[in-house]
Amino acid sequence: MKSFKRWGLAAAGTLAATLALTACGGSSGAPAASTPAPAASSSEAAKPAELTFWGWAPGYADSVKAFNASQSDVVVKYEEIQPGSRGGYEKMLNAVQAGNAACLGQVGYETLTSFAAQGALEDVTQYATANQGEYVEFAWNSVTVGGKVFGAPVDTGPMAMYYNKALFEKHKIAVPTTWDEYKVAAEKLKAADPKVKISSPYANYDYAGMSWQAGAPWFGIEGDSWKVSIDSAENNKVAEYWQSLVDAGTIAKAPMYDPAWFKGLGDGSIATLVGAVWQAGVIKGDAADGAGKWAVAPMPQWDAASPKVGNVGGSATAVLKGCETPEAAWKFANFLSTDADSYGNLIEKAALYPAVKALLDLPQLTKADEYFAGQKIFDVFKEEALKVNTDWTWGPNMPLTTTKLDDGLNKAWAGNGKLAEALVEANTATVENMKSQGINVAD
Amino acid sequence: MSVASTARPRKPGAKTNGRQGRTAALLLAPFVVIFAAMYLAPLGFAVYRSLFVLKRDGLGLTAPTLAFDPMANYLKAFADPVFIESLGRVLLFGVVQVPVMLGLSTGLALLIDSRSARAKGFFRLTSFLPYAVPGVIAALMWSFLYSGTSSPINALLEPLGIEIPFLGEDMVLWSVANIVTWGWTGYNMIIIYAALQSIPGEILEAAKIDGASAWRIAWNIKIPMVRPAIILTAVFSIIGTAQLYNEPKVLQSVSGGSIDSAFTPIMAAQVATAAQNYPYAAAMSVILAVLVGILSITFFKLTNRGSDA
Q1: CA within 20 to 30 Å of B304's CA: A43, A44, B134, B181, which one?
Q2: Do the Cβ atoms of B256 and A400 come within 8 Å?
Q3: What are the pLDDT digits (tens) for A259-307?
Q4: In this predicted model, what pLDDT tens digit does every residue of A12-49 receive, in sequence order?
Q5: CA angle, corner A55, sides to B271 and A26, nearest 5?
């Protein structure tokens, strides 16, 4: 009996350990479905190069069809995958490690540097340089890491201020053009109706857009070292500005993209949203109650004399490591970003905003928008896109940086801490992580 | 683990022993293969990966390499205040939540089992029902009940001037505990109830004839007899506590920072995974698994000591 008991004990322990461990392992994801990288047979010049493209933006499938119909040198096969943050990036990185990744993948600018730092991207500088001039400068910078080009920019996310025009008119408050005026408007709104808040909390990349506008970089490269400056004096200025709004009680509590946030945007208890061009689609889709009330104005400025604009989001068609036909890959990536017919379709289906200068006049971008009371909202973004600050570099491990930043920001927006502290903590954690892996960090 | 050959003494005169052994091996083979491929291999791989550290150089813009350094990730994990704090938090959670939940489960099971209980089927089903709601859905539902902007509980209490900060820093752990208790009490109750059903009627009859009250029968006969079932549910609950993830993860976005990215050990490991530091995530998982193993064995030993006599 004794031995049975011991066996049972050991079994129970093993069972417990097994359950706990397999549960942890589950999230790392199954290896990607294998798509053997098509080999380009150089001996037969007539045979088209075949390559696969992984993406998720609505409309990409049609663009691929259009590309395949337009020429006979390259055949692209489109495979729709989960959006990046919901598993797509993991699939790409795992597939690169396993050696069976697609040639091309849709990768957000903010993640592209982290991808490069994983060695997951293929250098296509030699094919790409000829097209550089066609692209908006900061978008081109976003696909360039350490002097190497890793893909073609597809869209950008220039920022502006969405505001509830009906609300501002009702309370006879002027639309703010500077951050000082924005603060005054916040007080006036609160005085007119204590339930109305000027804004809601901004986290990770939405918050980064504010730093971007203020010329307060988070990362930079000096020689062969990284400079991390998330808690720099410039960043502190931005943090303290928003902190003063939190302290004054003029920021809503509803987290962005939460049902309570959409409700606030719809019923007029959140008066503005300072955000990227693609937020137009988000507001229209999920705050339908606000139809006809909202409008778009330029982003409030720190210095009205020299207006600057931030950017949130935007993605590239990146060439993944192991691609055997990088030249063909670049040809398609460039087509996806520059072909007018294909891009018009992307604007309608995915609300993408072109990263190519020549496409900023597309007819799809000059339509009046009923949700915004007939305003031609892209006219505003066209102006603003030209003012986007061009030197902004993303760090080599953005998932870690933004996770730590959000931990602190969420507390601060809820009144349980300070925004400035969140910056310090994110900076410390990021530097510690980089140093522990042997990356050079300048002090 | 050739159970067939070691557990049973060789029967004299049995000629087919060899063939029996082969048949047993053949029948066991599919299980062993699947067990090895689906359980042992990932476990072994996790342990193996945890022995390496990520190494980069310069700007870190080239593919990282893995360097063999068996202790590095473990030392890092034990020196990581965020991870240690998450372990402590989950331990505190388990020490409070598991006994409360099992007390409730046992009480409910005894009530439904009692002779005078009415509509047993209805109560059995309704208390089990929360278990049928997937954990994530339950957490979403509770997030509405807790959230500062939508809580109907606080809306009802508002006229009285009371506001319960369900997601406040001091309270959020217990708000999570409430969701877990709500979801699992019925499940554990069913296990204990099933054990109660198997108590022979004669024993209860005899106790009744001896003049034992219902309380006394419950305390002195029923509970001791369902002890193994209670211990089983306790071990499952300990394991479940270590895996705490769904509820805090869902509440995180509305918690106003009270739940951070490393609220529980699994969430902490997930942060490392997202940051592509798989070896570190593996080390954290191994530590958690070993701790749960030790806890479960200790619990078994402690609870079995009394019954040895």
Answers
A1: B181
A2: no
A3: 889 999 999 999 999 999 988 888 888 899 999 999 999 999 999 999 9
A4: 555 555 444 444 433 333 333 444 444 444 444 567 89
A5: 35
Tracing tokens 């990768």 back to the chain, one arrives at A107
User: What distance lies between CA B143 and its chain's CA centroid?
Assistant: 22
Q: Does residue A22 belong to the interface with chain B, where contact is any CB pair within 8 Å?
A: yes
Per the domain annotation, does A195 fall within a domain?
A: yes
Do A438 and B266 make contact, defined as CB atoms within 8 angstroms?
A: no
Residue A140 and residue A148 in contact, taking contact as beta carbons nearer than 8 Å: no
Q: Do A5 and B304 touch (CB under 8 A)?
A: yes
Whether residues A88 and A182 share a domain: the answer is no
Other CB atoms within 10 Å distance of the CB of residue A114: 25
Segment B85-93 mean pLDDT: 96
Boundaries of domain holding A32: 4-156+313-365
Which residue among A226, A254, A411 sits closest to B59, beta carbon to beta carbon? A226
| B293 to chain A, closest Cα gap in Å | 5
Residue with tokens 């007390």: B103
Query: Nearest-CA distance from B113 to chain A in Å?
Result: 29
Is A84:A111 a contact under the CB 8 Å cutoff? yes
CB contact under 8 A, B273 and A28: yes
- Tokens representing A187 are 């007080």
- Across A311-315, A366-370, B19-23, B147-151, least confident range: B147-151
Residue A420 lies in a domain: yes
- Residue A340 pLDDT greater than 70, yes or no: yes
Q: Would you give the distance in Å from CA B134 to the centre of its chain?
A: 15
**Per-residue pLDDT tens digits for B113-168:** 887 778 888 988 998 999 999 989 999 999 999 987 778 888 898 888 888 899 99
DSSP-derived 3-state class of residue A361: helix
Looking at the fold, whether A89 and A211 belong to one and the same domain comes out as: no
Quick one: A263 exposed, middle or buried, by C-beta within 10 A (0-12, 13-18, 19+)?
A: middle
Instruction: List, in sequence order, every beta strand (DSSP E) within B23-125.
Output: 52-55, 65-68
Q: Is the whole-model pTM more than 0.90?
A: no
Instruction: Kindly state the tokens that stand for A157.
Output: 């996310």
Q: Are B255 and B172 in contact (CB under 8 A)?
A: yes
Look up the ipTM and state it: 0.82
Amino acid, single-letter form, for residue B234: A
Whether A174 and A202 map to the same domain: the answer is yes
Q: In whole angstroms, what is the distance from residue A91 CA to residue A442 CA?
A: 33
Contact B243 A23 (CB under 8 A): yes
Chain A positions in Cβ-Cβ contact with residue B56 (cut-off 8 Å): 117, 437-439
- The CATH number given to whatever domain includes residue A124 is 3.40.190.10
What's the rounded Cα separation, in Å, for the pair A255 and A260? 8
Q: Rounded mean pLDDT of chain B?
A: 89
Structure tokens at A190: 């609160």
Q: For residue A138, which of A385, A318, A322 has the smallest C-alpha distance?
A: A385
Paired sense of beta strands A49-55 and A104-108, if any: parallel
